[in-house]
Amino acid sequence: MPQLNGGGGDDLGANDELISFKDEGEQEEKISENVSAERDLDDVKSSLVNESENNSSSSDSEQTDRRPQPRPELETYEKQREYFAEALRRQQDGGFFKGPPYAGYPFLMIPDLTNPYLSNGSLSPSARTYLQMKWPLLDIPGSTALKDSRSPTPGHLSNKVPVVQHPHHMHPLTPLITYSSDHFSPSTPPSHLSPEILDPKTGIPRTPHPSELSPYYPLSPGAVGQIAHPLSWLMPQQGQHMYPITPGGFRHPYPALAMNASMPSLVSSRFSPHVGPHPAHTLHQTGIPHPAIVSPTIKQEPSADGPSTPVHGKAAVPVKKEEDKKPHIKKPLNAFMLYMKEMRAKVVSECTLKESAAINQILGRRWHSLSREEQAKYYELARKERQLHSQLYPGWSARDNYGKRKKRKRENKSEAKDNFSPQSKKPCVPYLPAEKMIDSPTSSHGSMLDSPATPSAALASPAAPAATHSEQAQPLSLTTKPENRSQHHFPALGKAPGPGPSAASSPHPNLSLHGQSSALLSRPIPFTSLPPSMLAPPTSFHQAALHSHHALVQTQPLSLVTKSTD
DNA sequence: CTACCTTTGAAGGAC
DNA sequence: GTCCTTCAAAGGTAG
Questions:
Q1: Are the beta carbons of A368 and A563 closer than 8 angstroms?
Q2: Beta carbon of A387 within 7 Å of strand B?
Q3: Residues 6+ positions from A316 with CB-CB distance below 8 Å
Q4: Does residue A533 contact residue A26 with C-beta atoms inside 8 Å?
Q5: Which ranges are annotated Basic and acidic residues under compositional bias (predicted)?
Q6: Pairwise CA distance, residues A61 & A527, whole Å
Q7: Exposed/middle/buried for residue A150 (C-beta within 10 Å: 0-12, 13-18, 19+)
Q8: Could you please report the per-residue DSSP string of A416-466?
Q9: What one-character DSSP code corresponds to residue A470?
């Protein structure tokens, strides 16, 4: 990626070409988004009321018939999330089913994903992917799920997650994790994962259904086939399965499985279940693989045949086979990864840049620009991910995946470390054209790029690493290779001399200069070629800071920005 | 075809 | 307790 990170100002021009953005002012965009979001929320609220009445008084079939009407305003993930949030609010207000068969279960409003509008591709790719990733059972008929599993559409191919068509179409209680902001309240354990489930507001105990706990989850990596739907905690278990698999029962309940043999590409690495010989046997009774499971077997040899029907040629190397058979259970995504997943598409759409490395840099900057509350959402989300993951794969350890990626350039790193010398460093980006510096989101005491760290931020979720100080001390990390790091440029930054105890226990352990990503120094990345809006959504805070630090900004090297530690 | 790049955070091993 | 390493996603790029 020499174009991006190549040293020196000479690269600025190249980078300018590389990164060009659309014209729209992001601030305006934000405003209009907010306005429409509020409007959407109102609509959602009213529709929720209606639906709730339906839910509480109607039979299942009636509910099915009264699915929400098309709601184009829910086309984005954010809006859907708000929708979920409202649903959750209702849940917390005591919206529980009182009688069988769903006693104890909350009314969970669901986005109308049966709505053609939502399934016709207008949903942003990221949102679609995300939803499907989180809820592989999500019923998105029409173009994606069942429309025709025999003749997959491009949509099929573009979606990494196959979608299950629920035999009874969308059930009003189709479980969905409601990653609402409400739910991110500190110290509110995810109700669906905690055995001691108690509604925070009403105190209404939600009977810990057997399904919420273990029967479906006690999986070791070796037993992945028995994975239940991750959300079976919400599934009614009294004598019926939400997504029953009858032998030959429902046609291609899981298109990817059905098409496993013919469409290896569909069974992408991430979401392919550990489909062994007979998919039906290796899957949980629900037939739902977990997104985190990746079967190298599938990837390498998309064979629907079992071991009983050996694939020609490659039957040898039994030892290796043995290892390959172990499904690759991926790590749960951390907060930032979740954020990236959600925001990547947006960033990509806003600039012509496609290279992930560069996109990630932008996202990293934006991440720091997020408010505490916003970050807390993702921390909480990630916490739930981990929790769910640990329930799904109790015996799994992150260590299990060590070495599954090809060995990193470990030697190079250590070598660079050993041979460290100031002379060998590439210069950091000390210089930037003045007019660009003005726009540069740089400042001395802390870049405006860094988290605003509003005072109110103190309310960050406990789950979210409580980082008040640490984040301030967080370097901008406009960095790159370890060998380019240098304390030379940061004599004062040694181990966050700041008083905070958080230096060590912070969510940003990378503060350590010795850490892999401490990355205080940088190969210059000419981010000044990016409009500030790209690096971090502008806020009044940013602008004010920009203004007040204008003079300073002009003389400050971009990549050396850190928060003042005092 | 495969590893790298780049970001942050989590986890686990080593000390 | 601290430090260090690896991996998670993503997709273009280089070897």
A1: no
A2: no
A3: none
A4: yes
A5: 19-45, 63-76
A6: 56
A7: exposed
A8: HHHT--GGGSPPP-----HHHHHHS---SBS-TTS----GGGGG--SSS--
A9: H
Distance CA A241, CA A233 (A): 12
Give residues with Cβ within 8 angstroms of A447, minimum separation 6: A441, A476, A561, A562, A563
Sign of CA dihedral A350, A120, A139, A68: positive
* SS3 category, A252: coil
- Say whether the peptide bond before residue A101 is cis (omega within 30 degrees of 0): yes
Write the burial class of residue A558 (CB in 10 Å: 0-12 exposed, 13-18 middle, 19+ buried).
buried
Digit-coded pLDDT (tens) for A338-382: 999 999 999 998 888 888 999 999 999 999 999 999 999 999 999
Beta bridge pairs of residue A267: none
CB hemisphere CA count around A123 (13 angstroms): 32
With a 7 Å cutoff on the CB, does A120 touch strand C?
no
- DSSP strands (E only) in A428-562: none
Q: Would you say the C-beta of A417 is within 7 Å of strand C?
A: yes
Which residues does A302 contact at the CB level (< 8 Å), separation at least 6? Answer: A260, A261, A264, A267
Q: Which nucleotides of B are covered by protein (CB under 7 A)?
A: 2-13
Q: Name the residue with the least CA to C1' distance from nucleotide B10.
A: A334
Q: What is the pLDDT of residue A538?
A: 41
pLDDT in tens, A108-152: 333 333 333 333 333 333 333 333 333 332 333 333 333 333 333
A552: Cβ under 7 Å from strand B? no
Would you list the DSSP string of A74-86? G-SHHHHHHHHHH
pLDDT lower than 50: segments of chain A: 1-74, 77, 87-88, 91-288, 296-319, 408-566
> Residue A280 — φ and ψ, nearest 5°?
-60, -25
Segment (H or E) for A358: helix A356-369
Torsion sign across C-alpha atoms A145, A151, A154, A157:
positive
Judge if the beta carbon of A523 is closer than 7 A to nucleic acid strand B.
Answer: yes
Complete domains list, chain A, with CATH: 26-307+322-329 (no CATH), 333-403+426-491+499-560 (1.10.30.10)
Residue A562 φ then ψ, to 5°: -140, 165
Closest nucleotide to A403: CA versus each C1': C6
Residue A350's pLDDT is what? 87
Residues, chain A: 566
| Spatial separation of the C-alpha atoms in residues A315 and A87, rounded to whole Å | 52
The alpha-carbon radius of gyration of chain A (Å, integer) is 25
Q: In chain A, what are the helix, strand and coil shares in percent, each to the nearest 5?
A: 45, 0, 55
